[in-house]
Structure formats: structure tokens, C-alpha cells
Amino acid sequence: MAAIYSLYIINKSGGLIFYKDCGTKGRMDTNDSLRVASLWHSMHAISQQLSPVNGCSGIELLQADTFDLHCFQSLPGTKFFVVCEPGTPHMESLLRYVYELYTDYVLKNPFYEIEMPIRCELFDINLTQAVQSDRVALLGR
Amino acid sequence: MAPVGPRSGDAIFSSIDRVNAELFTLTYGAIVRQLLTDLEDVDEVNKQLDQMGYNIGIRLIDEFLAKSGVSRCVDFKETAEMIAKVGFKMFLGVTASVSSWDADGTCCSIILEDNPLVDFVELPDTCQGLYYCNVLSGVIRGALEMVSMKTEVTWTRDALRGDDAYELQVKLLKQVAEEYPYKDDE
Amino acid sequence: MIGVGKMKQYSNVLDKPLSKGKQEVSLSAFAFLFSELVQYNQTQVDNIAELERRLEDAGYAVGSRVLELLCNREKGNRRETRLLGILSFVHSTVWKVLFGKVADSLEKGTEHEDEYMISEKELLVNRFISIPKDMGTFNCGAFVAGIVKGVLDNAGFPAVVTAHFVPIEGQQRPRTTILIKFADEVSISTSLYMIYLYLEKLNLSPGLPTSIHAAQVLKREARLSQ
């Protein structure tokens, strides 16, 4: 099964609030992940301008020869995106699931300050389980 | 990806984790009591309850969207229906209805047919000015603000204050158009 | 719309029939409310001990009302007068009503005579909560400890009740233990009661006087040993 490289969450104003390396390949240091997040935030915004009709919500999938990038933006504006090997299946479902985990283990945590970097043990634990390849396959049902 | 269609409030409510309403009701009662002790002023308590509701609303909106499959509403009318039919049901297990629309469709009433916040509650003489359920108005205001709608939410009927129902008036003040945020000179 | 907004009116809350307690709200609604309770109280305190105390206070208010409610509804106004009775009432009846299940365990403390522990692998109020590292051993279960204290105090069994994380071997997440330490007077009267039961069981005591005598002896002993 194709591998997931990494998972990002960026807040409404484009700040990286969560980053996770998911495998051994394609790991990034903090600076690089911040750079990717801010690049993507801008690209996503610019892509909305490309639309010939109104109401475009931006790129959902970017495919390149070395990676796929799947992005899900919630209506309030938080972006969740996953970078993976080309052709990795079930990524939309994974992002939806991560969104649900975020509403549970981040937003219901009284010690989480909204829009700030996410440091919630339970979110990490559940996310680590979710990105395991056998779990991801289950999301495809 | 095929959009996940909106689900009915009933379907969502029956599929999610639930708790006994009494735990919720009594916990809310404990919060109101703490505020009355801390702030010693009914108006301040009303404000704080509204603020707490707002704080809940700005977080709860994501859960609503994630679990309901509701996406962008076409207009404020649809939004109000979603709050009443899906929102109240999925969080509080009660249905609400929308009525009293104004001519330009920016102001309506949401009427609660049942209100789990108020079980066991009676306002003592010292708290007659209290909007006991003010948290709810804050929740709606906060949640809508996160999806670009500035609203004003006020109680028009409150059974704890002798009215025959719980009725909230929701007024759309401004719909912030979603567009590329740094268009011109930024 | 027709028929909307008709709610049965009672001039007085006491006239309203007591609900059967079957209504439900979503766990999320409770979780958001609880989170807000914790956040509000954080703005009112300078340190973690105070935060614990305030959450306990909030829980206490819930506990005392739950006792009222359940005594009315489930026990036909009969009040529990035995210590073990009230403990099992908390561990099973109260837990079931508030948290939808009986608590995982109720044990007697091994180190002290008058300590009991109610443990839960995953306390409902902690379901979505991660404690930041800088808050040390703080546990939002302080609210539940308050509920337990509220029930016990109002049933006539004053106790100090606290919530603690206890690591479980082989598990990522610790469980929460609600530690109940009864005031001395309670433990004495419990001991008395135990002796009374014991005597009665052995059939050594046909009537009360012997056991009262035994109790008095014990009470004196207890005072002397303090």
C-alpha cells in the first residue's frame, strides 16, 4: 500500500497548528513544514481565483510525479491536508475522519486555545492509529 | 468526492453518543449558580452566559458540519431551518421550529418545543432579570459567525419568565462575503 | 406553522411531574458545556489547587441534587443509612444515571481503614480532555469527585473526595480513581455497624444492648488511639 508522508492542519489565517510525519520517507523539519504550510495556504487561496465561476473553494487534490496532496477545508476555514505517495487511496475519507477527531479531541478540550498550535495527547493517540495503513483501508468501506 | 448529503437531525441523534439529559441540566445549573455567586449581578450573569455560549458556538460549528454532512447553505432561510431542524436535534435531542420571517428574509424566530436546560428550574425573586438559557443565544451567534454570518440573537419569549414558550429572535446583521482575503494592497 | 410553541405550563416547578430521567442530549453537548465550565473556572483562579476546588464545588451542587432526585424517584424517598449501602448507591445507581454505566470498580483502600476508591477506566468527563504537561497531576475528574462528595455529604456521610490519575500497566492512558476518605465519625459508626452485623451474624447478640456496649468500647478505643 502506498504511504502517507505527512499530515498538516492550518488555521484560518494560514498558521501551521499541527504537523505530523507519518512514515520514514519524506520527513520534514520544523522550518520546512512551516514553509510548506504557508506555501499551500497561499496556493489554495490563489487557486480560488482561477475559477471561471463564483463560489470556488480551492484545490482539493494536487497530483505531481512524486506526491499527491489532498486538502479538505472546513466551512469555518481550517485546512486539513495530507501529503502522500502518488495514488494512495482513501485520503478524502481520512481527512474527513481527521476532521472528526479534531472536533472531538481538540475542540472539546478546555485546555486548547482556538487557532493555536495543537498539543493534545488524545488527538495524537487517535491520529496515530488512524493513519496506520490497515486503518486507512477500513475508511474505504 | 460525492458530497455527503445532509442527514436528518433524528438520524444523527440516534447514531451518536448520548448522555442522560439530567447530567447536562444539572451541570448547566451548577454553572449558572457559580456565575451568580461570582458576579453577584444578574445582568453580568446574562452577559457571561452569552459569552460562554459564544465560546461554545465557535467550536461546536465544526462538529455540526463534520457530523451532519451539511455544507454551505444557500441563504439565511435555509441556515435557520438547519439550526432548528438539525442543530437543536443533534445536540439537545429536541426539535425547534422557525417562524415569523420578516419581508427580506433576514430575521426570524426559532421556537423551542422542549428545553432540556430548564428542567427543575424556577427563577427565585432575586433573579427575575435572568435569562437563564442565555447560553443558547450565544451558541447560535458564535456558530454563525464562524460561517461568515454576523447575527444578533435575543430572547423574545422565555417560559421561565412567564411566557408560553421559549423563542429566540435571530437577526442577520451582515453576511461577510467569502473571498480572497488579501486582494488589493496587502 | 400550526401547533408550534405549545408547551405545557405549570405555575410552579414543583407541580410539574418529576421526569423519569429518560431524556437524552448528545455527549457532545455535554462535553462542550463541561469544557466551557473548566475554561470559565480557569479564568477565576491563580493555581491548580483552586481550579480543582472550584470544579469540585460545581460538582457538589450537582451531587446534592442528584441525591434528592434519585431518592425521590428510585428509592421511594428511602435514604441509605449504611456506609456500604451509600457507597454502592454511588457506584451503581448514581453512576448509571449520570454516566450511563456502573463504575468499573469500588474497592476499599488498602492503606487506611476509612478509604474507598471508585475507579473508571475512562471517566465520561475526561473523554475528550488532554491535560497539558505543565498542569501536572490535575484531573478534571475533580468535578466528579465533587458530585460524589455532594451525594455523600447530603446523605449524612461527610467525606473528603479527590480525583487521581492512576497509570494502568500496558495502557497508554491512565484510569481515574475517585478517592473517598470518610470523616472519622463516619468510620467509627461504620465500624460499630460492622461489629453489630458481625455479632448478629454470629448470633451472639440477641438484642441491641450487647452491640451498643461493644460499640461504646470501640468508640472509646478509637478516641484513645487518636
UniProtKB/TrEMBL annotation, chain A:
It is found in: Endoplasmic reticulum; Golgi apparatus, cis-Golgi network; Golgi apparatus. The keyword Repeat does not apply. Keywords: Endoplasmic reticulum, ER-Golgi transport, Golgi apparatus, Transport. GO terms for biological process: endoplasmic reticulum to Golgi vesicle-mediated transport. It comes from the Eukaryota. Part of the multisubunit transport protein particle (TRAPP) complex. PANTHER family: TRAFFICKING PROTEIN PARTICLE COMPLEX SUBUNIT (PTHR23249), TRAFFICKING PROTEIN PARTICLE COMPLEX SUBUNIT 4 (PTHR23249:SF15). This is Trafficking protein particle complex subunit. It comes from Brassica cretica.
UniProtKB/TrEMBL annotation, chain B:
One of its GO terms (cellular component) is cis-Golgi network membrane. Keywords: Endoplasmic reticulum, ER-Golgi transport, Golgi apparatus, Transport. GO terms for biological process: endoplasmic reticulum to Golgi vesicle-mediated transport; intra-Golgi vesicle-mediated transport. InterPro entries: Bet3, NO_sig/Golgi_transp_ligand-bd, TRAPP_component. Signal peptide: none annotated. It holds the Pfam family TRAPP. It comes from the Eukaryota. It is found in: Endoplasmic reticulum; Golgi apparatus, cis-Golgi network. May play a role in vesicular transport from endoplasmic reticulum to Golgi. Homodimer. Belongs to the TRAPP small subunits family. BET3 subfamily. This is Trafficking protein particle complex subunit. The gene is BnaA09g15790D.
From TrEMBL, chain C:
It is found in: Endoplasmic reticulum; Golgi apparatus. Coiled coil: none annotated. It holds the Pfam family TRAPP. Signal peptide: none annotated. The keyword Secreted does not apply. Its main location: endoplasmic reticulum. The keyword RNA-binding does not apply. This is Trafficking protein particle complex subunit. It comes from Brassica cretica (Mustard). The lineage of its organism: Eukaryota, Viridiplantae, Streptophyta, Embryophyta, Tracheophyta.
